[in-house]
Design goal:
The strands form four sheets. Strands 1, 2, 3, 4, 7, 8, 9, 16, 17 and 18 form a ten-stranded mixed sheet that branches. The protein has a four-stranded antiparallel sheet with strand order 5-6-20-19, with no helix packed on it. It is of the alpha+beta class.
């Protein structure tokens, strides 16, 4: 297996270049989507490729496979895949990839499913992926209900449909006899959602890991949105700890809840001052708090979970620094107020770290994704989001996240739905981009 030559100096340079680009070009709050011109040469390339007999045959096969795609979609959805518990779905997806036909298939050390379809030259590797995990906890009913052409179930869109698209692209390429110059890896990743912290794709792009030259993720809604910009985030679970005691009898002990409240107030004030300046779009949010045993007990611990995001790596690090400083300052002040007992302590547990970055719109993969959208009558829009693509984007490796098509809504809720309204177009579009980027062996 080919191995990358990632070394710290190279990675550091790539990250700096792409982070700098993000900071310098985004000095004002950004919209979620931007219109960018598609270069004529890529429009011509896509038009010519879409008219190739093998590609036309593959497009027809995708239509013929609609029922099979639906069966795959439902099967995948009804296999639970809670965070850090994707094993059952991974085993099933591995069997499906093998049945569809690849040269090699396995589950890697992190839990990603990888199916390798070798190219005629084998000098490049393109990954086509979808994530296997959902946001729903163990025990959630994931049975699919159908009403006409609409499917209802937790996770039925995000990202079960993406996984079904990856499978159907593989089946269509095989049935049409399409060969590519580069290798294509058909991948199901783990850990894309929430506290999974992109652990699957981080493993793919680890130092000393396999050579990957380009990356396509199928995730998100619609046919026109193309994510080429990674929205970075850091997340903390911060816990203040103390001896605890009776609210009357032990009054005077350090109180973790009071420290937590002061820490939130300090962070909010300092972060607000920071964001009042000329700062690229950055956000922060205290999303969850907890702790304590009863109303008349001094808590032995109080905790919170905090999310911070920015389009710019430098500003993400700055607001993280503000956060850490506020936590330590609050701890110091609360300890100075206690009348008795041992000092309060703090655990600053970093539970999420997703890098920012941006792949230039002029990059061939981005242009091909845009030209493919145009080929099917959609006006492409470049967007920023937090997806599996964040990792390769941050390393300067061409990467995009493209939509799963159809229509859908209520993602991350028990009422999630997806409707097969021209859903085949997203599969055809994905195949077109995949073959264009991997190179059609003529």
């Amino acid at each position: 297996m080919k191995r990358s030559k990632f070394i710290n100096a190279i990675c550091g340079t790539a990250i700096a270049v792409f982070f700098a680009s993000s900071c310098e070009t985004r000095t004002e709050p950004v919209t979620d989507e931007d219109e960018v011109e598609t270069a004529p040469e890529y429009i011509d390339e896509m038009t010519e490729l879409a008219d190739h007999p093998l590609i036309r045959e593959a497009f027809d096969i995708i239509l013929e496979l609609e029922e099979r795609t639906l069966e795959d979609h439902i099967k995948i959805t009804e296999i639970p895949a809670p965070p850090f518990m994707e094993d059952e779905r991974a085993a099933a997806f591995l069997d499906m990839i093998r049945e569809a036909g690849v040269d090699e298939a396995y589950i890697d050390d992190e839990g990603n499913v990888i199916g390798i379809r070798e190219g005629t030259k084998g000098d490049r590797v393109l990954v086509l992926s979808a994530h296997m995990d959902t946001v729903f906890p163990e025990g959630t009913d994931v049975t699919v209900r159908m009403s006409g052409d609409t499917l209802f179930a937790p996770g039925v869109g995000d990202d079960s449909r993406g996984m079904a698209i990856v499978l159907t692209v593989l089946r269509a390429m095989n049935k049409a006899g399409i060969e590519t110059e580069g290798d294509v890896w058909f991948v199901g990743t783990v850990g894309e959602e929430g506290l999974g912290d992109l652990r699957g794709v981080k493993h793919l792009f680890r130092e000393g890991g396999p050579q990957i030259d380009a990356f396509i993720s199928v995730d998100g809604a619609g046919d026109s949105r193309i994510v080429n910009q990674g929205l970075g985030s850091v997340r903390y679970r911060t816990t203040f700890k103390g001896p605890g005691g009776h609210s009357w009898g032990a009054f005077g002990l350090g109180n973790p809840a009071h420290a937590l409240a002061q820490a939130i107030n300090m962070f909010d004030e300092k972060a607000g001052e920071f964001l009042a300046g000329d700062v690229p779009r950055t956000s922060y949010n205290v999303g969850r708090i907890g702790g304590g045993t009863s109303i008349n007990s001094i808590p032995y611990e109080s905790w919170m979970e905090v999310d911070m995001r920015s389009v710019c790596h430098d500003h993400l690090m700055e607001i993280e620094s503000i956060y850490v400083e506020a936590m330590k300052k609050a701890l110091e002040e609360q300890n100075s107020k206690r009348a008795s007992g041992r000092p309060l302590e703090i655990d600053l547990d970093k539970i999420g770290d997703r890098p920012s970055g941006e792949i230039k719109p002029s990059t061939p993969l981005v242009q091909r994704a845009m030209a493919a959208a145009k080929q099917f009558g959609f006006e492409p829009r470049l967007a920023r989001s937090s997806t599996d693509s964040n990792i390769p984007i941050s390393l300067g490796i061409p990467a995009v996240t493209i939509g799963r098509g159809g229509a859908g809504g209520a993602n991350h809720s028990l009422d999630e739905w997806w409707a097969n309204i021209d859903g085949h177009i997203a599969i055809q579009r994905t195949l077109l981009v995949t073959v264009a980027e991997a190179g059609l062996a003529r």
